[in-house]
Amino acid sequence: MPYEFILTETRGRVALIRLNRSKQMNALNPKLMQELGQALDGYDADDGVGAIVITGNEKAFAAGADIAVMQNYSFMDVYKSNYITRDWEHIRNIRKPVIAAVAGYALGGGCELAMMCDIVIAAESAKFGQPEINLGTFPGAGGTQRLPRAVGKAKAMDLCLSARMMDAAEAERSGLVSRVVPSDKLMDEALAVAEKIASYSLPVAMMVKEAVNRAYETTLSEGVHFERRMFHATFGLDDQKEGMAAFVEKRKPVFKHR
Ligand code: HXC
Prior knowledge:
Blueprint: E1 6-11, E2 14-19, H1 30-45, E3 51-55, E4 60-62, H2 67-70, H3 75-80, H4 85-88, E5 98-102, E6 105-107, H5 109-116, E7 119-123, E8 127-129, H6 143-151, H7 153-162, E9 166-167, H8 168-174, E10 179-181, H9 186-199, H10 202-214, H11 220-234, H12 238-248
Parallel strand pairs: 2-3, 3-5, 4-6, 5-7, 6-8, 7-10
Antiparallel strand pairs: 1-2, 8-9
Helix pairs in contact: 5-6, 6-7, 10-11
Bound molecules: hexanoyl-coenzyme A.
């Protein structure tokens, strides 16, 4: 499907979505977010896809929600249209692993979009921040909730209240990103990680995602209970039989994703 503000392609079992408003630093306008949601939904439903990578360009993953679009919105405009909830929440319902490959600026809604992904891989050039306070507003796509969960209260308060940016090294030290790689290796690395994930049993990868996400939503005992039930469920999969047989027979498993 041709999109206006994103580019999409598949490479084997990996889907790649590139945010494509480079002149505006990939500022996230409603149409872009609708397109992103459509593409994500399509890949989530596609049996041939096992993992999804979202990226921007070398200057910006995304410099936030589109300020020019937002500037004249009234309270009634955003409240009645359910701004953000309407177009930004698709990604939360995606069940396959989603990787953010971040180079350059990931600010405001861009940082929030990265945090909605399951793994964030950063180029050395990456800069993360929640600078909305500069604009007389504050993070509205989960930043005040996901950032403290990722980096702790002290740094989350610092970033949201001072608007300072965090570089890739600090983001890795703080737990916001899982790996930092040289800028020219970002896409190779992100696609390799996605390919690796997509080579495993898809239902198991989906269960891992579901179980880890539970850690944010519930108590430890409920989370462990959920994990145990999902673990038991893997014994109903052909892929568990194949994976364990392959180990015992000293060969590579051939997963059928069921
Ligand atoms: C609209 C944006 C934009 C944005 C950049 N541009 N960010 N347009 N919305 N969020 C546009 C600029 O206006 C400019 O357009 C072009 O992209 C290039 O940007 P420059 O500022 O000229 O580049 P540079 O000097 O390199 O600075 C890069 C930057 C800066 C540090 C990223 O652009 C910046 O501070 N952007 C805003 C970051 C921000 O405040 N983000 C939070 C947004 S609020 P022209 O036409 O002049 O070339 C938000 C709310 C979240 O995200 C709540 C819910 C999602």
